[in-house]
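Researcher: Dear colleague, please comment on this protein.
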Amino acid sequence: MTVAVNDPLNVSAVDDLRLILGSAIFRVVCPKVTIEAAINSVFERQDMSRETTQGLANDDTDDLAGLEEATDLLHDTEDAPVRREVSTIIRRAISEKASDIHIEPFEDRVSVRFRVDGSLREVRTIPKKYQANVTTRIKILGKLNIAESRIPQDGRISLRVGGRDCDVRVSALPTKFGERIVMRILDKSSGVRELATMGMPERIFKGFESLIHSKHGIVLVTGPTGSGKTSTLASSLMHINKPDVNIITVEDPVEVALPGVGQVEVNEKAGLTFAAGLRSILRQDPDVVLIGEIRDSETAQIAVQAAMTGHLVLSTLHTNDTASSVTRLADLGVEPFQITTTVLGVLAVRLMKRVCLTCRELTTHTPEELSLLGLTPERVVGKKLYKARPNGCSACKNLGYSGRAGIYELLVFDDAIRQQIVKSVDGAALRKIAMTRGMTTLRDSAAERFLNGETTLDEALHKTQVDE
C-alpha cells in the first residue's frame, strides 16, 4: 500500500500502519498541507453522505447508528465484509437479548458466543484469517488503541438499533492466540421495572419495601455478578423517588438512567473513586445515597458514617447469601457494633432460568431428589413438575429454557440477629438463627418456582447451592 507522508524518517508511524493494515507500506513524500487537504476532503464527503442518508434512518438495514458515526480506518472495499460481520454480530446479539458477546480466538478458528439468560452458547465461528481485521474494527469502534495488543484495554460504544439506545462496554484481553474481546450490552431503552413486578414473594416484598422507606441506615443487596442486583436497586430507587427526596448515586458505570436521580460515574483515572465520589455526594445534602458496590474498607467506613449521620444508604456486596454479607463487612474492617447500629437488612438475589412453556415435559422425582430442595413427597401432591426437553424447540432456540425469574432471600436485622452479630460475625451461625426465625431462603424461593411449574429441579438446585 502506498502512503503519503510528510516525514519519511518517522519509522514508528510506518510500523504502526503496517501492523494495522497488515500489508507492506510504500512511502511517498508529500507536503503536510496537501495531506491535510486530502483528509478534510474525505471527511466532507462523509458528512455529505450522512446528510443524504438521513431519510433512511428508520430502515433496519441502516442498523447501528453509533457504529456508523464511529471513526473507521477500514475504508477499503475489501474490508466491507468485516464491517458488515461486526455489525451483524452486534445487531443479532441485541435482537436476541444477549447480555454479553464473546469473541474468542483459538489456534484454528475464532468463536463467537452470546450470553443469553445467563448461559453462554456459540452462535458462529469466524475464519482465522479475518481475526485481525474483526478485532481492529471493534477496537476502533470502542476507541481503543489499535496499535497496542500487549495489554488489556477497555472502551465503550454508543449505538442505536431498531429504535433502541444501547451502550456496549468493550474489553480486550491479550491471549496466546490473539486478543479476546468481550462486549457487555447495556440496553438503555429497556427502562426500569416497577419493584412490585420483580417477582418477590409478598412477605419479602413488604419487608424490603419497609427497609427502603427508612430514614437512615444501610440496606444491602447481595449476589454474584449478573444476579440482578443493579436492576433491583434501580427499581428500589424509583419506588422511593419523590419530589421531596434528594437521591444521588455513585456507580461504575452508570448502567441505567434514572429520571430525577443524580448519577455520578466512577472515573478512577481522574481520581473519582467510590470513596471520593461518596465524600462529595455527602456535601450535596442527599436524603438517599446509592453506592454501586462496597469494594474496600474506605468505602465501607464512609457508608457507615453516612448512615450514622442520618442518610439512607443502598449498596451491593458480592456474597453468596444474606448472612455472609455480615462476614464480608467485618473483613472490610467494619466493627460489629457499627454493623448492628447501621445495617437494617440484606436482600440476596438470583436469576433462575425459566423452563420453556412450549416444550417443557412432565416428570416425577424420587423422595431423595425432592429432599435436596427441602421438599417432601406430600408437598408435591397435585403439583405438575416439569423438566426441560433435552434439545428444546424453536421457541427457546433449542435450549429448553426461555427467560429468567428472580428468587430472593431477605434478612431483616432484628434484636436477635444483632445480638448474634455482637457475639460473632460467623455467617453460618447467623444463618441458622435467621432460619429458625422463619427467614425465607433462596432455596425456599426456588422451591416455590419449581412447584409452580416455572423451572426445573436441576435449575433450582444449581442456583441455590449456598443452601447446604
User: Anything to note?
Assistant: The chain has three domains: 1-52, 59-187, 195-462. Residues 32-52 form the longest helix (21 residues).
